[in-house]
Design goal:
Glutaredoxin; single chain; globular; 221 residues; 44% helix
């Protein structure tokens, strides 16, 4: 269990190649689609949240990425370095890769709910689609237009309208995801995205060459 305050609006700025958080907070509507944000204090059990993982469970190096679907630097990472990381280390059994969402705003939360809607097997494929089209759906207009674009991405992954609506209207899941994010952000001291935890050590966003060197050092190469 965790006890926390759901806070209206996180202040966000872009600096030094990362999105920065002033505190682990998110604008959370009662209804994840169109309801009004509401500050409240509650206890939420986050044990039902599934960790999204790629690679061998017993890989010698574990990398946890903290990322927001509305963070352009996270999109850049997934469009470039991540693909090389997957080829060089995840697919070869050297790295266990764990992806954890950070919620700057309700739009990132909705994107997460879409990505998780089809389950772990399709999560990373949907994540790729969401990041690839980030510039389009985040600038689609108001909330209705943005969620409409996210629904289109879900349909591309094979989700039907009933599945999408059920996932997006699940307010309990939305609150659980926010609580889970806040637990993780506090535990690991997450202040910016993307941030990586490599075998327990926090690493800021950097070039793939530097990241590769760090991983190889962890592997003893």
């Amino acid at each position: 269990m965790t006890r926390f305050a759901i806070v209206i609006c996180a202040a966000v700025a872009v600096a030094a190649g990362a999105y920065w958080l002033t505190r682990p907070a998110v604008e959370l509507p009662n209804n994840p689609l169109v309801g009004q944000a509401n500050a409240q204090e509650t206890e939420i059990d986050t044990s039902s949240v599934v960790e999204m993982v790629q690679g061998a469970e017993d890989a010698p190096v574990e990398i946890i990425e903290y990322a927001s679907f509305t963070c352009p630097h996270c999109a850049s990472f997934h469009e470039g370095p991540y693909k090389q990381l997957k080829k060089d280390f995840i697919d070869t059994g050297k790295v266990k890769f764990v992806y954890r969402e950070v919620y700057f705003d309700r739009y990132g939360l909705w994107a997460s709910m879409i990505a998780r809607c089809a389950g772990p097997d399709k999560f990373f494929g949907l994540t790729d689609l969401i990041f690839k089209s980030q510039a389009d759906w985040t600038r689609a207009g108001g909330p209705n237009e943005i969620v409409g674009e996210l629904r289109k991405i879900g349909r591309l992954a094979g989700l039907d309208d009933d599945q999408l609506e059920a996932c997006l209207q699940d307010a309990n899941n939305a609150q659980t995801l926010v609580a889970w994010y806040q637990e993780n952000a506090e535990k690991d001291g997450i202040e910016a995205t993307p941030t990586f935890i490599v075998n327990g050590k926090k690493v800021e966003n950097q070039s793939y060459a530097d990241f590769k060197t760090l991983i190889e050092e962890e592997l003893g190469n």
